[in-house]
Amino acid sequence: MSQVLKICEQTDLVANSGVCAIVEGQQIALFYLPKEIPTVYAIGNWDPIGKANVLSRGMVGDINQRLVVASPLYKQHFDLQTG
User: Fold this and answer.
1) Are 58 and 44 in contact (CB under 8 A)?
2) 17-60: per-residue pLDDT in tens?
3) Phi then psi for 24, rounded to 5 degrees?
4) Domain residues of the chain, as ranges?
5) How confident is the model at residue 9 (pLDDT cuts 50, 70, 90)?
6) 60 versus 1: which is more confidently predicted?
7) Cα–Cα distance, 32 to 12 (Å, whole number)
8) How far apart, in whole angstroms, are the C-alpha atoms of residue 53 and residue 15?
9) Which among 74, 26, 30, 81 is positioned nearest to 56, based on CA atoms?
10) Are strands 46-47 and 52-53 parallel, antiparallel or unpaired?
11) Which residues does 30 contact at the CB level (< 8 Å), separation at least 6?
12) pTM of the predicted model as reported, rounded to 2 decimal places
């Protein structure tokens, strides 16, 4: 389920990059992409393949016009709209 929850200021985010926030005990990867709509994406920080909270440190890109983050561990891709 999608919902809006303010957890930081936009100025706390790094353009075209990810940061990690802890919300209700869960690590969330936030990505600020100023040229996209919406400009901020949030997915879980957990990489189920690498079994580590690292997705906020991944590289952002697009594959077939879908925004993705590549895990810094094994480089698998996660869709920023669906996780």
Assistant:
1) no
2) 999 999 999 999 999 999 999 999 999 999 999 999 999 999 99
3) 50, 40
4) 12-79
5) very high
6) 60
7) 10
8) 21
9) 30
10) antiparallel
11) 7, 8, 13, 18, 19, 20, 21, 40, 41, 42, 56
12) 0.90
Q: Counting beta carbons within 10 angstroms of the beta carbon of residue 16, is it exposed (0 to 12), middle (13 to 18) or buried (19 or more)?
A: middle
> What homologous superfamily does CATH list for 12-79?
Rieske [2Fe-2S] iron-sulphur domain (2.102.10.10)
- Which burial class, exposed, middle or buried, applies to 40 when counting CB atoms under 10 A from its CB (0-12, 13-18, 19+)? middle
> Which DSSP letter does residue 14 get?
P
Is residue 54 within 8 A of residue 73, CB to CB? The reply is yes
